[in-house]
Amino acid sequence: MKTPSVYFLTNKNNTVIYIGITSNLIKRIYEHKTGKYKGFAFKYNCNKLVYYETFQSITEAIAREKQLKAGNRKRKEDLINKENPDWKDLSEGWLFNV
Asked: Which residues form the GIY-YIG domain (predicted)?
């Protein structure tokens, strides 16, 4: 999926929401699941994809990421609940199993 995307990750208890941006969602989620980078998502065990949006351009994705990061947690939860009310891992069944 080589498309600019904004995504939300959470941990197993859904207590932390991480917002990221990428041009290759499958590759980036794999990197999160394997702990390739030791940043915020790694520190808080955020490796469950619960929400994502795709865009035509990286510029649009960056603007949306900034908008989402500026919002409060309730707005983020509302987006997740609308599209993924059970907070299931949307990457389940993708080409990797980590």
From this structure: 2-78
